[in-house]
Amino acid sequence: MRVLCVTDQSSSSRESLMEGIFRGSLPQYCELHVVVFDRAAKEVTLDGNQISLPYRYKKLGAARLLAKHLDLQQIDVVIVRNYFGVLRSFLQVRSGYRFRLGFWNTFPHTFRRYFQALQEKRAVLRKRLEYQVRSLWEMRLLRGCDFLIVMSEEFKRSFHGELAIAYHVLPMGVDPGELPERLATPGGAKRFVYIGTIDRLRKVDLIIEAMTSLEEDFVLDIYTESDNEAVDWVRKVQDARVRLCPALPRPELLQRLAGYDVGIGLIPENPLYNVSSPTKTIEYYGVGLPALLNYLPEYRALFDEESAFFCPFSKEGIRQAVRRILGTDSRELVAMGQKGKRLIDETRNYRVLSLRLFEFLQKLTEGSR
Length: 369
What we know:
The chain is an alpha/beta fold. It is built from 14 helices and 14 strands.
């Protein structure tokens, strides 16, 4: 089986899921070509199984351009990730080919813009109209596909519930081979860590306010590549227990995670994040850290009270949960982290996820030759 995956990534991107599946385990099962978009490129370049297109083609003409450099007659499956303009270009040419065409939707990006307007109470009517028009256009394109890939069952129900095509759930995972063993943490204050995006919608300020309202000693280290008003707020926190750390390359960050006691996986419960598959929490457990979580559907499906600390996403709920963690023996924290790690290794190992994706795609192509 020959698979073409047209991504929304740049040539320098090293996203966990792309690396773990499409550049990692999936090529063991099929011939795979990956397309990326390069803002600096003026022409198409080929490097092994990777094809780089000039960025301007993400909205128009990507399929016809690719057909000049790759024999699409030999392709069995085309997967387009997140770019509806690219999907449209393949729909326009697919009658001349036999490939199965699918769309990989990793996050409700269109809804996010409308949701942010609702939260900020700015330009709500305009954003609602834009969302409605855009959603109708996207749905029309999706109905022309053979299949859909989403990050969670909740995503499918919430945003594509009426779409009657085959679908596959492809959540975030881990590659155990790149993860360090958990280190023995020094005695003294419990060490918490938060990694990932910080913005107004994620309400990291509420998490910090809840934790700093406690009198007990602890350390909270925050690693983020974000640079915005929400991060500026964190910088101004006048509490020595909270530290904003420089962003690190992913391999180094994973090594650093192994020296903490508990990961912070709290994400607001709302229509935007209820459908998510949070990368940071999977990586906490990948190195054996238990996490402080709220009641997102993905969290409830994966973990229980023996592997995670659950609480409402509220100042008082977080405050009480952190106090509970501070009173928990370090050996019990290690045991909870190890139980969660076993769950992740069994269900979110990229080798497992790659095989499931391959089997899904293989069924789609049966009888198509």
